[in-house]
UniProtKB/TrEMBL annotation:
<protein>
    <recommendedName>
        <fullName>SAM-dependent chlorinase/fluorinase</fullName>
    </recommendedName>
</protein>
<comment type="similarity">
    <text>Belongs to the SAM hydrolase / SAM-dependent halogenase family.</text>
</comment>
<dbReference type="InterPro" id="IPR023227">
    <property type="entry name" value="SAM_OH_AdoTrfase_C_sf"/>
</dbReference>
<dbReference type="InterPro" id="IPR046469">
    <property type="entry name" value="SAM_HAT_N"/>
</dbReference>
<dbReference type="Pfam" id="PF01887">
    <property type="entry name" value="SAM_HAT_N"/>
</dbReference>
<feature type="domain" description="S-adenosyl-l-methionine hydroxide adenosyltransferase C-terminal">
    <location>
        <begin position="182"/>
        <end position="259"/>
    </location>
</feature>
<dbReference type="Pfam" id="PF20257">
    <property type="entry name" value="SAM_HAT_C"/>
</dbReference>
<feature type="domain" description="S-adenosyl-l-methionine hydroxide adenosyltransferase N-terminal">
    <location>
        <begin position="24"/>
        <end position="157"/>
    </location>
</feature>
<dbReference type="InterPro" id="IPR002747">
    <property type="entry name" value="SAM_OH_AdoTrfase"/>
</dbReference>
<dbReference type="InterPro" id="IPR046470">
    <property type="entry name" value="SAM_HAT_C"/>
</dbReference>
<keyword id="KW-0949">S-adenosyl-L-methionine</keyword>
<dbReference type="InterPro" id="IPR023228">
    <property type="entry name" value="SAM_OH_AdoTrfase_N_sf"/>
</dbReference>
Length: 267
């Protein structure tokens, strides 16, 4: 996520963006059903020139504490000037706040429940705002459609909403760290993604899962079928896998389970 020239009138009130996002990516825990489709359809009506893509719809349900650690990886190597609308929102319908963040060329929208905190830890230069603007009508239970999509449309249309800057320490769960040694996602192959930036580890690092030590491999083909290992995945995160097998079953791990760093060559 690089930098870009950007300005608007004021930081705390309505203004006009000189350059808004060019596209919108949806990141939700909604799964199958009508919800993502309704968000896409509404946004298409409000901002018909902006492509909208469902980037992921199976973030860990209700788990902002896990989902937030996937965001940086999911945005890795994606096109700049993207607005990421992130909706893992078990507090929908309460008085929880809504956040807007600018990080380099990109924009982010999310509930104030910790979802953006890991990203802010990795990008302390990012600007984050509490949004006070609300549309004329919202349902009590579907703010992904009724609040986040109108907000996304305003940004795409270069319309700065009413908001106020806020420090990360003032956010809900603002104490969360940049990385966690927990399983944050299990893909369809049974691979286990941890909330850890893989660049923090050397190839000599070994991870401890129960009584088993996992060594690093660059690709699946570097280990024998059935062997478990860890690798730097395509998102830049630490991932546990079994060549031609399921790591979740082989290692007995589920969402939120902890993995330990056993040893690492610091030289």
């Amino acid at each position: 996520m690089g930098s870009a020239v950007h300005s608007h009138r004021g930081r705390t009130g309505t203004g006009v963006l000189e350059a808004g996002p060019e596209r919108v990516a949806l990141l939700t825990d909604f799964g199958a059903g009508p919800y993502v489709g309704q968000m896409q359809l509404l946004l298409n009506g409000l901002a018909p020139d902006a492509p909208v893509v469902s980037l992921i719809a199976d973030l860990p349900a209700f788990r902002a504490d896990l989902s937030g650690y996937l965001l940086a990886g999911l945005a890795r190597r994606m096109p700049g000037r993207t607005l990421y609308a992130c909706v893992v929102d078990p507090g929908v319908g309460t008085d929880r706040d809504v956040l807007m963040m600018r990080c380099g060329e990109d924009w982010w929208l999310a509930p104030d429940n910790g979802l953006l905190v890991p990203l802010l830890r990795r990008h302390p230069e990012a600007e984050v705002f509490r949004v006070s603007w609300r549309p004329d009508w919202m349902s009590a239970t579907f703010h992904g459609r009724d609040l986040f999509m109108p907000l996304a449309a305003r940004l795409v249309n270069c319309d700065w909403p009413d908001c106020a800057p806020v420090a990360v320490e003032e956010l809900v769960n603002g104490h969360w760290p940049a990385d966690i040694w927990q399983v944050c996602y299990i893909d369809g192959f049974g691979n286990l993604i941890l909330g850890v930036d893989a660049d923090r580890l050397t190839p000599s690092a070994r991870l401890k899962v129960g009584g088993q030590l996992l060594s690093h491999a660059r690709t699946f083909a570097e280990v024998a079928p059935g062997d478990a290992f860890w690798y730097r995945d395509a998102f830049g995160l630490v991932e546990l896998a079994v060549n031609q097998g399921r790591a979740d079953e082989r290692l007995g791990l589920g969402l939120g389970d902890t993995v330990a760093l056993h040893a690492q060559d610091e030289g």
